[in-house]
Amino acid sequence: MDFKTIILEQRDNIAVLFLNRPNKLNAFTFSMMEEIIAALDIIEADDSYHAVLISGKGRAFCAGADLSAGQNTFNPSFDDFAVKENDFRRDSGGILTLHMYKFSKPIVVACNGPAVGIGASMQLAADVRLASEAARFGFVFNNRGIVPDACSSWFLPKIVGISQALELTYSGRIINAEEALKLNLVSSVHHADDLLEDALAFTRNMVQNSAPVSIALTRQMLWRSLGSSGPYEAHVIESKAIDSRGSSADAQEGVNSFLEKRAAVFTNKVSTDLPDFFPWWE
User: Fold this and answer.
1) How many CA atoms lie within 13 A of 18 on its CB side?
2) Strands 88-90 and 114-116, bridge-based pairing
3) Domains in the chain, number
4) Helix axes 231-246, 212-225, angle to 10 degrees
5) What's 126's domain CATH number?
6) Do 131 and 120 touch, CB atoms closer than 8 A?
7) Residue 165, CA distances (Å) to 109, 130, 153 in order
8) Cα angle 250, 254, 258; round to 5
9) Statement: residue 78 has pLDDT above 70
10) Residue 83: beta bridge partners?
11) For 103-153, how does the pLDDT look when each residue is reduced to its tens digit (9 = 90+)?
């Protein structure tokens, strides 16, 4: 597929997706949203990809929404690309993060520079965020007269806690990578020149010894448990998943490789071998 606002590369079994409007600090547009979603669909359907790493080209990760429309940037009356549902316009950032939320493979972000507005909120649907020393984060929506987007009112409190989430969104203040680390917004901070390779190594290490189908199930089990009222739903789905996986070729290989003291070679595929009850939430 010929992308105009992103670049999709493959590094071994890792998909690397770059936001690619460096002359605009990778400012977010509806076209960029569509291309990221299209790339995620390609990655999900291709079993040679075991995870996706998202970063930005140039000195920014994403400077937020493209404000070239001026004062009417956020006015739905001037939005020719809106996705309408009943009597409201669906937020394009939320369309993206909901797609990320239901994705079946790990998502890692390597935040290489400034990330404000949607540039910060889109990262919250990733499993792990790594940051360059040059990274800056700002949930600046209230400063622009709007409110948080991209389902960040759900994601952000779960990552940093409700009080920190409220303070960050009320004030819209810009925080550096070290403060983001203290708030658990990111997992680690890296020298700018090392970020991409460090993030690739981290992502490879995260998935290389585990069965892709088991990772897909685990990703959804953990994310969706955040919305459950107690452990009972978790017990049901874990029981079903353990039974399904326990009878699989992957489980046999996992045990045999351990006993034989060798690396496992898992053969079940995300594209064809997810259990019949998946997706259980629909």
Assistant:
1) 18
2) unpaired
3) 2
4) 170
5) 3.90.226.10
6) no
7) 20, 19, 8
8) 165
9) no
10) 90
11) 999 999 999 999 999 999 999 999 999 999 999 999 999 999 999 999 999
